[in-house]
Amino acid sequence: MKILFVDDEKDVEALFRQKFRKEIKSGEIELAFAFSGKEALNVLGDENPPKFVYVFSDINMPGMSGLELLDQIKIRFPNIQVSMISAYGDSENYDRAMNSGAKGFFTKPVDFERLKKEIAEMVKNQ
Amino acid sequence: MNIHLQHILDTLLQIEAITDEQRSSLNKTLKEADKELTILEFKLDRTEKVKRTTAILLEETIEELELKRKAIEETNSALQRSLEDLKATQSQLIQQEKLASLGQLTAGIAHEIQNPLNFVNNFSEVNNELIDEQLEEIEKGDLEEIKELALIMKENSEKITLHGKRADAIVKGMLEHSKTGSGKKEPTNLNALAEEFSRLAFNSFLAKNKDFKGEYKLELDPELPLLEVVPQDIGKVLLNLLNNAFYACAEQRKDLSGFENLTGLTPTVTVSTKNLGDKIQISVKDNGPGIPEAIKDKIFQPFFTTKPTGQGTGLGLSLSYDIIKAHGGEIHVESKPGKLTTFEILLLM
Question: Whole domain around residue A98: which residue ranges?
Answer without folding.
Answer: 2-125
